[in-house]
Design goal:
By secondary structure, this protein is mainly alpha-helical. It is 64% helix and 4% strand. It contains ten helices and two strands. It has a two-stranded antiparallel ribbon. A hairpin with an 8-residue loop joins strand 1 (243-248) and strand 2. Helix 9 (176-201) packs antiparallel against helix 10. The chain is globular and about 55 Å long.
Length: 273
């Protein structure tokens, strides 16, 4: 009987509507099979862009770190998890959505956090720092299952050190294009956060689709921030590779898709990851 109760409780978390989180969009208004239709389909950028980024960063993955492709793959997982959550509003969907974002943060920190911000015991060793981030991710994963109601606020707070580091690093940047991309990323991140906060706390605004806008803006902010940090990593730790920020499909148009070109992919250089 006890075993049956455990299975019943486990499946209860898959039940539509089992999540304590419900956004402003009215449930099952557009489709009888999708709880929050706009919040679900607004994740399309998470599925559309990462394959393009994997192609554009082929050179970066070959001559700097293959880990960049892991980040793009994780963004796809974020999009799929978010779609599942908003389509069902299940607790399992919520946890998958939030944990995917958590692992994007930890993977990005492991790969691109400037060494000057490492704890002293890491001794500027990126592998040691990566192990620390992996350990933190495991602990945070367990904690998120224990107290899922606070997950979203913790994840939002994790964006603060990311932006503070970016602010400090942009003051060191000499490339004006990289500097402008950093500023645009920061602005889009701010707009995304405003959409999230407004939809979470101010449904009285009578516009129930701000969380859908959050999905669009946070993807743009996330991938452009990763591009900036990818550039900063090469410039700081592998300057001999001579990184160059470019845009696809037209390099002169700075509102295209940014990526990092490696101007000196000499085989005699060994990367540090």
């Amino acid at each position: 009987m006890a075993t049956l109760d455990i299975y019943t409780l486990a499946w209860e978390h898959f039940r539509p509507g089992s999540s304590p989180v419900d956004w402003c969009e009215e449930n099952y208004l557009i489709s009888g099979h999708i709880a929050e239709f706009v919040n679900t389909v607004s994740n399309f950028l998470f599925l559309l862009f990462p394959p393009v980024l994997m192609y554009l960063f082929k050179e970066y993955g070959r001559f700097v770190t293959k880990g960049i492709h892991l980040l793009w793959a994780l963004l796809i997982i974020v999009g799929l998890s978010s779609m599942y959550f908003h389509a069902t509003l299940s607790l399992i969907g919520q946890l998958l959505d939030e944990l995917a974002i958590l692992w994007v943060f930890m993977a990005a920190y492991s790969l691109f956090c400037p060494k000057r911000y490492f704890p002293k015991f890491c001794r500027n060793n990126r592998r040691t720092f990566g192990l620390l981030m992996f350990t933190c991710a495991i602990i945070a994963t367990v904690m998120s299952v224990w107290k899922p109601i606070v997950n979203a606020f913790v994840l939002m707070a994790m964006g603060v050190p990311t932006m503070l580091m970016l602010y400090r690093e942009l003051k060191r940047v000499k490339d004006e294009r990289v500097y402008r991309l950093g500023l645009r990323s920061t602005a889009v991140w701010g707009i995304a956060v405003l959409c999230w906060v407004s939809d979470r706390f101010f449904c009285c605004l009578k516009f129930p689709y701000l969380h859908g806008f959050w999905h669009v803006f946070i993807f743009i902010a996330a991938y452009t921030l990763l591009v900036v940090y990818a550039y900063l990593f090469v410039e700081s730790e592998l300057p001999q590779r001579q990184p160059l920020l470019q845009y696809w499909p037209v390099n002169e148009f700075e509102f295209g898709i940014p990526f990092i070109c490696i101007r000196n992919p000499g085989k005699e250089f060994k990367n540090t990851i």
